[in-house]
Design a protein that fits this description.
- By secondary structure, the chain is an alpha+beta fold.
- It contains five helices and seven strands, in the order αβαββαββααββ.
- The strands form two sheets. A five-stranded mixed sheet has the order 2-4-5-7-6, covered by helices on one side. A two-stranded antiparallel sheet has the order 1-3.
- A hairpin with a 2-residue loop joins strand 4 and strand 5.
- It is globular and about 55 Å long.
- The N and C termini lie far apart (53 Å).
Length: 178
């Protein structure tokens, strides 16, 4: 029974890895459905509170404007945002001060979404490679999470900007057309 449980867990892990790889390599379709960034962010905020890497000592600051909409695929945008939030939570695991800020607002003809954490930060070398497939700094990471995130944002006509300082945290800013 013990070996069977291990085998089943490994099958699930490999299935997830293959699915991530196929999602990354599959040509992207142009998004055409109106979606609510506000609603997606609220769902993520509600769900991360029950995520195993979420610690009760994480201070969350949320400032999300109402009625933020883009054309897109809600599940894909949710996956991209969730990848960033989970990475942030993991980067803060050993930090004494754990702050996660989520901000979203409309500026001109764009929707801006910002995730900022007080995690470990990244050195310049990892910052340059962070969106490359199979680049990871985690012992059990696949190196596909942020590569897929980047592709999802790009498919939605968005841009992503990242600032990170070792020992001080990381800031992801995404800009989407309204």
């Amino acid at each position: 029974r013990k070996l069977m449980k291990i085998i089943l867990r490994e099958i699930d892990r490999l299935n997830n890895l293959i699915t991530e790889f196929l999602d990354y390599s599959r040509p992207a379709k142009k998004p055409t459905d109106p979606i609510s960034i506000t609603q997606i962010l609220q769902e993520i905020i509600d769900s991360i509170k029950f995520h195993p890497t979420f610690s009760s000592d994480v201070e969350m600051s949320i400032n999300v404007q109402q009625d933020l909409g883009i054309l897109g695929f809600p599940d894909k945008i949710k996956q991209a945002f969730l990848n960033i939030v989970i990475n942030s939570l993991q980067a803060m695991e050993t930090r004494p001060q754990k702050d996660l800020q989520i901000t979203a607002f409309k500026k001109d003809n764009s929707i801006i979404v910002i995730f900022s954490d007080s995690g470990m930060g990244m050195n310049p070398e990892n910052l340059k490679k962070m969106f490359e497939p199979f680049h990871t700094t985690k012992s059990k990471g696949t190196g596909l999470g942020l590569a897929i995130t980047y592709k999802i944002i790009e498919t939605h006509g968005g841009q992503v900007f990242v600032e990170s300082t070792p020992g001080q945290g990381t800031r992801f800013e995404m800009k989407f057309p309204c």
